[in-house]
Each structure stands twice: as C-alpha cells, then as structure tokens.
Known about the structure:
The protein has helices at about 1-20, 25-30, 45-50, 55-80, 90-105, 115-125, 130-145, 150-170, 175-190, 195-200.
Amino acid sequence: MWYTVIKFAAVSVIAYLLGNFNSAIFISKLKRNDIRKLGSGNPGTMNMFRNFGKLIGVLTLILDALKGAVPCLIGWFVCGEPWSFGADKIGLYVGALCVIVGHIFPVFYKFHGGKGIASSVGVCLVINWWATLISFTVGALFLIFFHIGSITSFIIISFPIALNVFSLSATGGNTACLVLLFALFCLTLFAHRKNVLKLYGGNEGRVILFGKHKKRKTN
Length: 219
C-alpha cells in the first residue's frame, strides 16, 4: 500500500512541477520582453498569438501541449498496472490534474500562471487523440472565422473530455477517473472566469491568425 501511495505522490509532485514551467514566459523573456506585461497579461498561447504572431503562438502551443502530455504518460506508466500502459489509467488522470494545477497556480510564479488550455490539449491527446484532433480542427476553424480565443479553447477540449466521460460512465470505469476529469474541466473553466465576463460585456480580445500582425513595442 505504501508503495502505491509513494508512486501516486511522486507522479503528483512531478506533474505539478512540470506544470510550473511556462513556455510563454520563457519565450517572451528570450525576446527581451514579458508576456505578463503585454495584452491581457495572461502568460498563455492566445496572448502570445496576439503579441508575437503566429509562429511564436504555435511554438507556445506545442510546448505547453507537450508539457501536458508528458505527466499523463508518466502517471499512466508508473501507476495502475505494474510499469505499463495498461487499461488502468488512474495515474494518467492524476498527472493530468496536477500538471494543470501547476500551470494555473505555479509556485515559482507566486501562483499566477496561465489558463491551462494548451496543456489540456496535451492531456486530451493522451486521453483520446482522434477526438482531440477533430475538436482542434473545429476550434481552429472557429478561431479563423470568429477570432474569439476563449470560446475556441473550450471547443477544443470539451469534445474529448465529454466523450471520455461518456465512455467511462458507459463502461463502468473508475469513479476516481471521472472525478479527476471533471475537476480538470472545472479548473480550466474557473481560470477563464474573466473571459466569460468579457464575452458578456462584448470586450473579449480578438485573435487574428491571418492578416497583418502589429508588432508590440518592447520595453
């Protein structure tokens, strides 16, 4: 029993610490700026798109998605069945929740992080890659035509999460997995509470993927 507790504790800590690495802050620092002082101030993919353009935005998305996927794979391999990617995925969901907590509430940045969507994309790719690719395509098209980043974010993660919840419920899956998955979704929704208010007031920032990109002045 203690061995199992130690494994879950180790996965939780590793996932949380990996979540603390913020690629938006790291990349903006390389460009002699700080994304937290630009645009919305959020150190995330959409704000990187707005302030540094498409290539930097895509790079941020890839790094954050990778950060979300790695702890899930670690947890899946270490916990559940003995050192294998078996049917028991409780470790996957523990890693998923903890990496998102680390991204949104990073101890190294005084608990002020991003909103967890890009990292959640990585989580969703591990949970159900084909559903995530479908929802990502739909979300990308929505962003291209409507330019609303926050709605795009939830289009991308909602379908794979909902599908997985249905699958777990229909097959009598581990209740703990359902709880962890639901907590992950609620956490990202909580992180977007200000965006919801901005949408209601018609003040949500737009993300223009195609067209002339306006450079921001550096400090």
